[in-house]
Design brief:
This protein has 180 residues and is mainly alpha-helical. It has 8 helices and no strands. The two termini are 33 Å apart. 20% of the residues are buried.
Length: 180
């Protein structure tokens, strides 16, 4: 399904480039692009990220909207999107710290700093601002993949019993290196 959606989106994007006067082609491509981003986000719904409430700041739809606003010159909407993504990012980092799961200090500061500086320079030096925002988004996406926990029957049982932290500490201290 995901690859089919991407193929349809690419075909629509090529039609926009081939026929730039076709007004409905642009809107069709935008709608298909948003649908592909939703599909990409749905692929990751079964995974768990501790400290996450409902949405992750690195979700593809939010990032796609940010890039569209930033590249298209919609500075106000780019600003609102960056601020909302940073708020979600900050809340997740605080929740993960409270759970004892956050061990990074440099990456979050770098991600937030790059996004803020990129947003400030975006209206003046478009390419530099866009690159800084893209670098901040790359850091966030890497953290997204690092924080993912794929549910397994063993991890589900440990979560149900409330002993996941104990088991992780035990498996880390064993010499054989095999996890549960």
């Amino acid at each position: 399904m995901k690859s089919c959606g991407i193929g349809v989106f690419l075909a629509a994007a090529v039609s926009v480039l081939a026929f730039p006067v076709c007004r409905w082609c642009g809107w069709t491509t935008a709608i298909l692009g948003a649908a592909v981003l939703v599909i990409i986000d749905r692929v990751y719904k079964p995974v768990r990220i501790r400290g996450l409430k409902k949405t992750h700041s690195a979700e593809a739809l939010l990032t796609g909207l940010l890039f569209a606003f930033a590249w298209g010159g919609a500075w106000r909407w780019a600003f609102y999107t960056v601020v909302s993504k940073l708020a979600v990012y900050w809340m997740r980092k605080r929740a993960r710290t409270a759970l004892g799961l956050e061990r990074r200090t440099i990456a979050p500061a770098l991600r937030m700093g790059l996004a803020a500086v990129g947003l400030a320079t975006l209206p003046f030096v478009h390419v530099v601002g866009f690159v800084l925002i893209a670098a901040a988004e790359l850091i966030d996406r890497c953290e997204f993949y690092d924080e993912m926990e794929i549910p397994t029957p063993a991890s589900d049982m440990l979560d149900h019993l409330g002993r996941r932290g104990d088991s992780l500490a035990e498996s880390a201290s064993r010499d054989d290196g095999h996890a549960l």
